[in-house]
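Hi R.,

Here's the chain you asked about this morning:
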Amino acid sequence: MSQEERTRYSAEELQEFEQLILEKIKVAKDELSQLKESLSRKNDTGTDNTASTSKLLEDGADTSEKENLSQLAARQQKFLTNLENALIRIKNGTYGVCVDTGKLIPKERLRAVPHTMHSIEAKLAKNQ
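And here is the predicted structure, written out as tokens:
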């Protein structure tokens, strides 16, 4: 049976994707933890509150860096949520099926973007 005719991945194929996603979740959680740790260090102003021009410049740089870290942490949290949602789709049997076309998303795409719910054709069509 060709991939065009199939509407679902086999249990063995889903298990392969589940392992891939679990590994990505572990890495993503570690990275999120590091980002949060960096943010908490940036929020700790320390005890040296000397007022000077260089202190003001440092505060501006710190604020910018905090904003960047916050954005990275939010993006990482969203990625984690998407990966966890992919695990749910594996459990309920809808993983790997394009929500737009109803066709199987190619394995190569799922390996590259395991949390995707769209075939590349559907994604490209949306972006036009």
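One quick note: The chain has a mean pLDDT of 86.

Cheers,
M.
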